[in-house]
Design brief:
heterodimer; A: 322 residues; B: 435 residues; alpha/beta; five-stranded mixed beta sheet; 12% strand
Chain lengths: 322, 435
């Protein structure tokens, strides 16, 4: 089973091999120092705005702490976590979140790839127009897009029922937000519409990296379009695909706006971030809510680890260095 | 040396500008002129802003009132106010509060105490349910402003065709059968939202029970619920009947007050329980040409339906009461301002212009009010019977728990749902379960 990629050395720059670390040159040491100096301030800001709140949440999650009753704040250890992890709600919201993540990311990958091809191959005269048109949904604020989709599907102001009434299972009385599956269907559609441009943009960058020489060589060898796609294009942009998948999965896992606007978590459509919001902001149970947030954070770390270790995504290669 | 100096000068200029900007924003509400009070209001049709203006004029330079708009949903209004008050926000002088959240605010110490003399003046002639809603642990903690209640709205033509005598009290059972026989809808709020709690509470109260049986419980884990009582079962039975008969319409599980009014203006309308805003809305629909003038002429109104034929109904109570922020720098002026805001003239103005019924009984005989709202006497009668939603500092837990178990209404099982809701809410209050 041969796939065609250029040998590492012939791409842009050699990938830093592991064995080379011992003999680090003066120049690369200077480069590393410059790198730290350039990235340092950003790193410090990141620590301040992300690490500090994360640590604060971890600390708060160990307490029974209600915002309106600060005097009775008491240390309860890990009991918040055991309450959450033994509760059906947590597991349903986790399942719903995973479902939304898997469905939307899978559909978006296929759609996004198709759109990236369109953007890539479009006539240069209309290319800017097509790119702009494809990117518009991504520029729409998520809350606005959630409202738009909700209005489209709702019973009183929606047009979907009257347009698609000829389809089996859809009638003028179909209440899209009246059941779990139908609600999740609309949520997924809205998410897919909104974020496919993001994936297609990342994939477009990947497509642009596939060396034209390889395509031509394959063509000369008599490879069909499908063979070129499978053996040349996709293997060469694996890094871009994986990075797009990783970013989008992390993003999809945090889905909040659509649920908040469209269903408010009714009919078992609650996601993990919505659960955290409700415990912290609506119930004012800072301790319990922080524990949910910490668990959400752990999930995100696990997804990252799965991609980076499990699928061997090299984040550096996505920048065109690998 | 020469290179650092200009840089320092730039830094100094930037810092100076920042400080000046901070000082300017801090001053805008304070020094020079009378103290400015900030009144956090819920969105309305401009009535509260107008009242603020009138009271500013009436204060003759003692204070001015500025309004700040809160979010649309009352739960979100609560969230914003609590977040600010938990941080001791001194900019909150007066706030428009939804009554169910008042115990929580009072218990947390977010409300400035109301002196006896003020309390005496502002509770004079106030309808009983509004007074109850403004009180926590036998003390008036907020100033009653306006009081809302739900009426039974009906289409005269449908009620007549079904042979219902609407001059006498009707039961839910009768309404369901009438709507069924005419193929019309009975509009109720089946949405998973506060409106559902309102419905459940009114049903339980009308059946002679109450959702919380010991609202003076000091600790959350001591709260006892009355959902498995006979009244609780009877209430669940009504919900099940409405859902199973299909008279609630196809969108029952997502229908809120607005969706109900939309449906009530349509061809399938028969009956509906809803707040009085139904009336001004129909009037403006006719004026705007979106509603046939014959439609509101067919509207009838009566007291909230009964659960059992021989027991008076207890309609929902809502509205807005005014709290004075505990961290306000001018609590005395804020209290004086609330007295002005709730004057009978302002309540009458608010009723007529915004459709929000007054808390003071005398307003209901105001000729202008009666002219605009022919149902004003029924509203007053309804307010006298109305009961507040469960009064507890943990109201949002109780309400959310109810919404989870009683939604969708078609899933309600009179024998089971009350028990499940009790178990859930108790476990949540004991912090053994999530919500």
């Amino acid at each position: 089973m041969s796939t065609t990629t250029l040998p590492p050395g012939e791409k842009t720059r050699p990938a830093p091999a592991r064995g080379r670390r011992a003999g680090i040159s003066d120049r690369s040491r200077a480069e590393r120092k410059l790198g730290w100096m350039l990235a340092g301030p950003a790193f410090a800001v990141m620590l301040l705005v992300t690490a500090y709140p994360i640590l604060q949440a971890v600390y708060d999650s160990l307490f029974d702490f209600r915002l309106t009753d600060p005097e009775n704040k008491s240390f309860t250890g890990l009991s918040n976590y055991s309450v959450i992890l033994t509760d059906r709600i947590w597991w349903t919201s986790l399942a719903v979140t995973l479902l939304i993540t898997v469905v939307t990311v899978a559909v978006e990958l296929v759609l996004g790839f198709a759109l990236a091809l369109v953007m890539m191959k479009a006539l240069s005269a209309i290319r800017p127009v097509i790119r702009a048109a494809i990117l518009i949904p991504y520029a729409v604020i998520t809350v606005v897009s959630a409202f738009a989709w909700q209005y489209a599907f709702s019973l009183d102001s929606g047009f979907v029922n009257s347009w698609l009434g000829w389809l089996p299972g859809i009638s003028a009385d179909t209440d899209w937000f009246g059941g779990t599956w139908k609600s999740l269907f609309v949520v997924c559609i809205a998410e897919i519409w909104k974020t496919t441009p993001f994936i297609s943009l990342l994939l477009l960058a990947g497509l642009a990296q596939v060396p034209e020489v390889l395509q031509e060589a394959a063509k000369v060898d008599g490879a069909t379009w499908w063979q070129r796609m499978r053996r040349v294009t996709i293997p060469n942009m694996k890094a871009a695909i994986m990075v797009a998948l990783l970013f989008r999965s992390l993003d999809a896992f945090r889905v909040f706006d659509s649920i908040f606007i469209m269903t408010g978590g009714a009919n078992n459509t609650e996601t993990v971030s919505f659960l955290a919001y409700r415990q912290t902001i609506a119930r004012l149970e800072i301790g319990l809510g922080s524990a949910v947030s910490v668990l959400l954070f752990v999930c995100v770390v696990l997804i990252c680890a799965l991609f980076i270790k499990g699928f061997k995504v090299d984040l550096a290669s996505a920048r065109g260095e690998g | 040396m020469s290179t650092t100096r200009p840089r320092r000068r730039v830094l100094r200029a930037v810092l100076g500008a920042a400080l000046a900007a901070g000082a300017l924003t801090a001053c805008s509400s304070g020094s020079g002129g009378p103290p400015s009070l900030t009144w956090y209001i819920n969105p309305d049709s401009g009535g509260q802003a107008e009242i603020a203006k009138r009271c500013t004029d009436a204060a003759q330079g003692r204070y001015t009132i500025r309004t700040a708009l809160l979010p649309r949903e009352s739960s979100e209004q609560r969230q914003q106010l609590i977040r600010r008050l938990a941080a001791n926000d001194s900019s909150i002088d007066i706030m428009s509060l939804d009554p169910p959240y008042i115990p929580e605010f009072a218990e947390a110490g977010f409300l400035a105490p109301i002196p006896q003399d003020v309390a005496g003046r502002v509770s004079e002639g106030v309808v009983d349910s509004a007074l109850k809603g403004a009180t926590w642990r036998d003390e008036l903690v907020t100033v009653p402003f306006w009081a809302n209640t739900q009426l039974l709205w009906y289409r005269k033509s449908v009620a007549e065709a079904a042979g219902l005598d609407m001059t006498k009290p009707v039961t839910w059972d009768q309404l369901v059968r009438a709507a069924e026989s005419q193929g019309k809808q009975l509009g109720v709020q089946g949405i998973r939202a506060e409106a559902l709690t309102v419905w459940v509470n009114a049903l339980v109260a009308s059946a002679g029970g109450s959702i919380i049986e010991n609202s003076d419980a000091r600790k959350p884990e001591d709260i006892e619920l009355g959902l498995v009582s006979q009244a609780g079962v009877a209430a669940a039975q009504v919900m099940k009947e409405v859902a199973d008969s299909g008279v609630g319409g196809p969108a029952l599980s997502t229908a809120g007050e607005d969706a109900n009014v939309n449906a009530f203006e349509g061809p399938d309308a028969g009956f509906m329980v809803n707040w009085p805003f139904v009336w001004p809305r129909a009037q403006s629909g006719v004026e705007g040409g979106t509603l046939d003038a014959a439609v509101p002429q067919d509207y009838g109104w009566a007291l909230y339906p009964r659960v059992t034929a021989d027991q008076e109904s207890h309609p929902p109570y809502g509205g807005i009461n005014l709290g004075v922020g505990a961290f306000s720098a001018h609590t005395d002026l804020a209290l004086a301002a609330t007295e002005c805001i709730v004057s009978p003239e302002n309540q009458a103005y608010y009723f007529v212009s915004n459709g929000n019924p007054a808390a003071k009984e005398s307003v209901y005989t105001d000729p202008e009010v009666v002219k605009e709202f022919p149902m004003a006497p029924v509203i007053l009668e309804s307010l006298r019977l109305a009961v507040p939603r469960p009064q507890t500092p943990y109201y949002s837990e109780v309400s959310e728990g109810l919404q989870r178990e009683y939604h969708p209404p078609s899933s309600v099982d009179p024998q089971r749902t009350g028990r499940e809701a009790t178990d859930l809410i108790t476990a949540v209050l004991q912090k053994k379960e999530l919500l």
